[in-house]
Every structure is written in C-alpha cells, then in structure tokens.
From TrEMBL:
Cofactor or coenzyme needed: Zn(2+)
UniProt cross-references to PANTHER family, sorted A to Z: NAD-DEPENDENT ALCOHOL DEHYDROGENASE
Protein's name according to its UniProt entry: Zinc-binding dehydrogenase
Family listed: Belongs to the zinc-containing alcohol dehydrogenase family.
Keyword line: Metal-binding, Oxidoreductase, Zinc
Species: Paractinoplanes ovalisporus
Alphabetized Gene3D superfamilies for the sequence: Medium-chain alcohol dehydrogenases, catalytic domain, NAD(P)-binding Rossmann-like Domain
Keyword Lipoprotein appears in the UniProt entry: no
Length: 350
C-alpha cells in the first residue's frame, strides 16, 4: 500500500510503497477515509516540535472504516466508522501520540513511552493503518454521513472541547479564544457557540479570518491582536473563560493579555503551542481567584459528545472550508496545509 513515510530525523516526507499492516493483538486494521493534515505538519517534520520516532508512517488522526479487529477487541467491529485520536495513554503521565510528536506528562518521555512507541509507531497518512484499540472511538450513524472527509476535523474539535470543558460548563458564559484565526481556535469558536456561550470573542491577528468568524453569528465578537499586552487585554475582555490556542509565539504577551482579560473567578486554559514561560503575579491570581489550567488532547467521552453535537446539527461543520489532497505529492500537500488556516483545513483522502 502507499503511505507517507520518514526514515530518519533529517528526511523529507516521501510517498512509499510499504507492506499492508498485519493484524495483531490489541490492534484494529482500518481503511483510512480522511486524515486532517495539521497546518504545522511541515514544522513537525522539520523537527521543530520534538522528535518523531523514525522510521515511521506519519499522521496523527483520521476518520476510518474498520476492516478487521484482533480477537481481543470488542468496542469496534468491521464496517464501523471510527475516529482515530492517536492518543495512547498508559496512565501516570505516560502517553504517546501514535504517528506524531508529543508525549504526555512532562513531555520528556520514559522507558515506558519508548516501549509504547516501539510497538505502536505508524500513523495514518496511508491507505490503511493498524491502530491500537485505545485510539479508536466509534461514531454511530456516521455510515450515513454525506461528507466523511469533513469529519476528519473532529479530532481538532475534540481537543478544543476538552480544553473548554476544563473551565466548566460554557453555556451562558462569556468566552474568548486567543489564536482564534488558527484551526484549533476556529474549532474552539464553533464549539463554544454550539455549547451555548453567551458571547465568543475571537482574538487573532488575521483580519480576514476574524471577519469570517464574525459571520458565524451575532454572539461572535472579534478582537484584532496588536502585540501590545494592555491594548489586547482590553480588547479581549472582560470574559469568564479564555482558551489559548496560539501557535509558537516569540513572546508570551498574547497569552498574558488573555490572563489579564479575565473577570474575577475566571479561567484561562492553555492548549496551544506556545513555548514561553509565563510570569504569573501570585497576589493577582489569588485576589482575583483565577484558575489557570492546561489541557492536552481529548478523551473518549468528549469525542462522543462532540460527535453527537455534529450528528444532531447543533454543531454545523459547513462553515469550515475543506481542501482535499491525495497521497501523490506529500511536499505540495504540506505546503498547502501550511497556507490553509482560519476556518479552513486540508484533509488527506488516500
Ligand atoms: N493541547 C493539545 O492537545 C493540542 C493538540 C493539537 C494541537 N495543539 C497546539 O495547538 C496549536 C495551534 O494549532 P492550530 O492547528 O490552530 O495551528 P494554526 O492553524 O497554525 O494556528 C496557529 C495560531 O497561532 C497564531 N499565531 C502564530 N504566531 C503568532 C504570533 N506571533 N502572535 C500571535 N498569534 C500567532 C496564528 O495567528 P495568525 O492567524 O494571525 O497567523 C494562529 O491563530 C499548535 O501549535 C499545537 O501545538 C495542542
């Protein structure tokens, strides 16, 4: 079968003919129907987001149809439409993303995560994939969904949902998303609207992307980030909840503007890719009774609740622009993904 592979840390992604994976214990063999190619995939491949366990087939998550299951797999069956979350979690902070960068806990990894990556290494940018059963969640009724490629955005919606839920129920609260012009941010805006936020302030730099978010409805406010912490805080808030979905920023100013924008008893949740330290004033956090949370990936219950929002029509994915690519030209696909953001994403349909 055909797959996007990497053989060494300084390799480019290449289209390769590889053996079709053979079923083994704890495994689910799937036909990959569509896989989101994250906007920062090229950065991941270039080694800017931590080490990939090479050699491997790349690709963190997908929508797939189950072909076969190992005898010890009971929660999914041949013919089911599933989402592969990539998350394999052994508990105690030892978690890996199969086919991708990113380790749970401190991020440093352990003997256990190394063993997990030895056994479950290959991802889903391929015609078929053998997935660990723990990464699979069934999507009941998805067999009849008219646009399965669009559903490959589900894992991003689930990460955003888990982050928002870390702040408690969203209904009736004023929510802001900092980095709303990115794909995770766009997902968070859609989620917060679907879950009944009173207002959703979309904050980001890109005016065009902000205008598109404003068209989602009258509950959306926009704030164009200037880079000045005080100005941005005044533009974002006051709000009850902020989800930070920023990519790698050169300073922590936008995140600290988000912190400043909180009302008393507000919550800031970090899910983005910022690699900066935050200077949090002890007395301010205490007197304003703020909560600062981190959130990483998602879980099965969140996947099911987000799928039910989509399935019921409460979360309308038609606002998202979908660009599909095939396996033929990985370099062009990664370039397209890097230039496709806002409420748009690239799906690989192998
Ligand atoms: N916690 C988790 O479980 C989890 C899971 C998946 C991904 N992530 C992280 O989420 C982050 C965002 O992912 P994504 O898919 O949304 O990526 P993306 O589409 O590339 O979006 C990046 C966002 O960051 C903003 N940004 C980048 N540099 C900036 C700067 N210097 N100042 C202000 N804003 C800046 C971008 O704004 P412009 O539009 O103005 O460029 C955009 O809104 C990634 O870095 C990833 O590491 C976390």
């Amino acid at each position: 079968m055909r797959a996007w592979t990497l053989t060494s840390p300084d390799d480019h992604v290449r289209l390769s003919d590889v053996p079709t994976p053979a079923l083994r214990g704890g495994g689910v063999l799937v036909e990959v129907l569509a896989a989101h190619v994250p906007a920062y995939t090229k950065m991941v491949v270039e080694g800017n987001r931590g080490g990939l366990p090479v050699p491997l087939t790349l690709g963190p998550s997908c929508i797939a149809r189950v072909i076969d299951v190992a005898p010890d797999v009971f929660h999914v069956a041949p013919g089911d439409i599933v989402v592969d979350s990539a998350l394999l979690d052994a508990g105690g902070g030892d978690a890996i993303l199969v086919g991708w960068v990113g380790l749970g806990g401190s991020g440093a990894g352990s003997g256990r995560t190394r063993r997990m990556r030895d056994v479950w290494r290959d991802g889903v940018f391929a015609e078929q994939a053998l997935c660990a059963k723990e990464t699979m969640v069934r999507l009941p009724g998805a067999e009849n969904h008219p646009d399965l490629a669009r559903l490959s955005f589900l894992p991003w919606l689930c990460v955003a949902a888990k982050g928002l839920h870390a702040a408690g129920p969203i209904a009736g609260r004023d929510v802001a998303v900092v980095g709303a012009t990115g794909q995770m941010g766009g997902a968070a805006v859609l989620l917060a609207l679907a879950e009944g936020a009173a207002t959703v302030t979309a904050a980001g730099r890109n005016r065009e992307a902000l205008d598109r978010l404003a068209e989602l409805g009258p509950r959306v406010r926009t704030c164009q980030l200037t880079g000045d912490r005080a100005t941005d805080a005044a533009g974002i808030g006051p709000v009850d909840v902020v989800l930070d979905t920023l990519g790698a920023t050169p300073t922590a100013d936008a995140t600290m503007a988000a912190y400043d924008s909180l009302r008393v008893e507000g919550t800031l949740v970090l899910v983005g890719g910022v690699r900066q330290d935050l200077t949090i004033p002890y007395g301010d956090l205490m007197h304003r009774k703020l909560t600062l949370r981190g959130s990483w990936m998602s879980d099965d219950a969140t996947v099911t609740s987000v799928w039910n929002l989509v399935r019921s029509g409460a979360l309308d994915l038609s606002a998202i622009g979908l660009r599909t690519v095939g396996l033929d030209d990985p370099a062009a696909a990664l370039d397209l993904a890097a230039n496709t953001t806002g409420l748009n994403f690239v799906a690989l349909v192998p």
